[in-house]
Amino acid sequence: MATVTELKAVLRDTLEKRGVLGHLKARIRAEVFNALDDESEPRPTLSHENLLINELIREYLEFNKYKYTASVLIAESGQPAVPLDRQFLIRELNAFEESKDNTIPLLYGILSHFLNGTKDGIQNTFLKGSSLQPPNPNIGRQPSGREQMDDHLRKEEKNNIEDLHISQTMKR
């Protein structure tokens, strides 16, 4: 007959293998935070910059299905419960978005912009997200945000090389 310690170990291993244990821990942390959060104490007023930064982070967290982390961010920061309009964010950042796909978080485009920088005086398109495609619904498993970002960066690098070649050809 198995001991209590052995049963605990088997249960823990099973929950870890199924990915449930991490989910439960995150949910417990979020619930503990909500229980301890003193709502009678007013939150400091969000600056305009913090409002925008928090919204970019929220969009990223929700895209990657970090819903408990997002809920803690919203509660702790005093960010409005309703997400800001994406077009409002783009206007406030003085950016533009070439891609019509608005499912990719703006942070990925910002990161791509700064990772690729400028080459030979050619400025890369800011918030270009067309090479980072949303998950293929025909595939059984959705790629993680990290896998999508890696794929996006590989495609972006290829596009930058092609753009550079076209630009140099046009200069001649």
Task: Give the structure's gist in a few sentences.
With 172 residues, the chain is mainly α.
Characterization of the model:
The protein has a two-stranded antiparallel ribbon with strand order 1-2. The chain is mainly α. The relative contact order is 0.09.
What is the molecular shape?
flat
- Helical residues, percent: 55-70%
* Biggest beta sheet attributes: 2 strands, antiparallel
Q: Give the neighbour order of strands across the main sheet.
A: 1-2
- From N to C, what is the helix and strand string? HHHHHHEEH
Helix tally equals 7
Structural class based on helices, strands and sheet pairing:
mainly alpha
Please, what is the average pLDDT?
74
Q: Strand percentage, roughly?
A: under 5%
The strand count comes to 2
Give the low-pLDDT segments.
120-126, 128-142, 162-172
Radius of gyration: 21 Å
Distance between the termini: 82 Å
Record keyword descriptors for this entry.
172 residues, mainly alpha, two-stranded antiparallel sheet, 7 helices, 60% helix, flat, disordered C terminus
Compile the SSE list and pairings:
Elements lengths: L3 H14 L2 H17 L11 H16 L3 H11 L8 H7 L13 H11 L1 E2 L2 E2 L21 H27 L1
Antiparallel strand pairs: 1-2
Helix pairs in contact: 2-4, 3-4
